[in-house]
Design goal:
The chain is of the alpha+beta class and about 325 residues long. The protein contains eleven helices and seven strands. A five-stranded mixed barrel has the order 1-2-3-5-4. Strands 6-7 form a two-stranded antiparallel sheet.
Amino acid sequence: MLNQSEISSLVKGDPIDHFLLIKRFEQRLTKAGKEYISLELGDKSFSSPANLWDDIAGFKSLKNSLAVGDVVKISGSVDEYQGNSQIKIDSIRLAKQSDDVSPKDFLPKSQRSLNQMKKEFTARMENIVDDDLKSLIKNVFSGERFEKYTSVPAGKMWHHGYISGLLEHTLEIIRICDLMCNIHPEINRDLLICGAMLHDLGKIEELSYEPVFEYTDKGKLLGHIVIASMIVNDEINKIPDFPENLKNNLLHLILSHQGKLEYASPIVPKTLEAITLYQADELSAKVNAYKNVINNEIKPGSNWTRFISLAGTDIHAHGLTNKPDNKDNKTLFDN
């Protein structure tokens, strides 16, 4: 049973005596031609770079035995390099069976109840009115495919990068899309909600999550947008007389959901539903990413993060909290 402090809670100078998961492993050479190993080590809360130098005991045997997905016991301390946290390794060994730890102990998971999220998603399927879309959605989200869909992360690290993150992300988008449908009744609700459910379906084949989060060969070669479009097109072709116009508009939602050609969408949003889905996706992803950064990247003694390259800025934690009142303060997820 794993019982140790989270590395996200540690600051420069703090000692480390932790089991950690190897998330990246690269053999490199220094400018002087000496071998060393560049690592990324992490637990559920945080990942940090580390270097394993050739003067560490057992270096030669370790360089041939360590691999991504291995659990190792690290003794050392938290250090910094160019303003970023890193782990200084004093000693390292592979975890033993008697340590009773496994890679799954180090994979972050959604804080929402998986059973509750599954029930919410299933209820959304039942609320679809259009018979063709309902048949499609029920065919797509069944069996092993649905189990993968409810387990896979939405991304490797930037947003919803944890077990069941894709399901959580999708439910957030559905809520946002529902709100927009209430504001703009011209939007086709069934079409939009189905697009939200299907837009990231390809991530079940783009991303693997055992023993670490990583892109598959298929994911790197095709990408989740193409994979999702292929799956949905195949399932549509199994339904007799599925309307061609409905098919094209649904596939358009998948193909355009990243909004811009430079963001890997092969087409830009060209319908009310498509622009709504793109913006809902962006809102869910970026709010989640900012929350994660604020929770894990605040610099010691500051209320600012380091510069976050994916955001293009450093991010501020203002410390202002909602004031309690006598009104119903339920969130969208408390229904």
